[in-house]
Amino acid sequence: MKVPLLYGKKTLEVELPDSLDVTVIRKPDMPLVADPYRATVGCLESVVERALGCRTACILVCDVTRPVPNSLFLRSLIEQLMTAGIDRKNITILIATGLHRPNEGDELASLIGDDWVLDNIRIVNHVARNDEEHVDLGVTRSGTPVKLDRRFLDADFKVATGLVEPHFMAGWSGGRKVIVPGVAHADTIRTLHSARFIEDPLTRECNLEGNPLHDEQLEIVAMVRDRCQSGIYALNTVIDEARQLAFVNFGEIESSHAEAAHFADKYCVVDVGKRFDVVVTSAAGFPLDLTYYQAIKGFVTPLDILKSDATLVVASECAEGIGSESFRKSQRLLLQEGPNTFLRRIEKKRLADIDEWETEMQLKATRATRVQLYSEGLRGIDRELTGVEMVDSLQEAVDASISRTVDPSVAIIPEGPYVVPRYAA
To answer: Whose CB has fewer CB within 10 Å in the chain, the N or C terminal residue?
Structure first.
């Protein structure tokens, strides 16, 4: 039996003998939108009425780490805003980078996916470390400093666009997450990614109920809403494994995102009737597996179906290497201090160091299982800095893992963290 895993812009095949009991974990088939363009235009019909009287608009767009079908909706959304009387020179597309690097040049063109938009609309990257570009709104009830990009806050009409998919901290991506951390200041992001939030057991994929990170994001959105002229809106999309549109809606940010998450939950969360000694997965392919930093998401989402002392084999291209210099520093500290000392140290901090939260999420996996990683993009010292076992052959790693167990059952998750298996006895 051969099973292809998403890997970069291609697939890698894993071959398994017929003697094994192989469980391939995929989303059930989604009911695809028959005419994606017409459906998208249709859901935007209310924009004109909502935007009447507004002079300026800011459209938040996810950065390159999310395969959002921007080419389907950006021009239609902009044209509706122009019909409502907003001059195109007063419309800004703000790339919600969080603390990621900016998206520029050919990468930006690919992200936007529409030459008309590129030629006619101002497009800028959010820079979380630039103090002057943020407005201080105070603090949340729990003490999180709230500083957001002034280009978003000052716009009369505000809309966040994005993809609703499983997220290993916030429950689901999209909606409020495009605002915070998407266009938040580094201080806000570092607080929300501190151990106080991340170590909470409810801070996990596909969970919004009682998720402290989600609740904090909603409180921040409410703080923004209190100073809005026309509310805050969201355009939400859900796609299938082949990146085809299955769902799109537009509306008030909280309710529309909840509706999209409810739809996605029916397909992305898959009940599995047993746990496994060997699980093989991916980091979801391009663009999510561009860096090792992002690949860690593939380590965390399968944990519920792993037995104790199990092996998790992950394929992630990591074409851009390990990630930021901040993340490289965090991984180096992990190796120097060891997992227990590293965790004890960061648990005392109010502000997380930039990108150390991904190291913390990695430890959630390595504390629970043996992780083996196949990657052609990681070289030299970066392979050592992963802190996990690197393998030179995906097939050989899978074969060796199977040989170490007497259980003939193996699970494979071709789409990686876009599918969340849940143990259901």
So the answer is: C
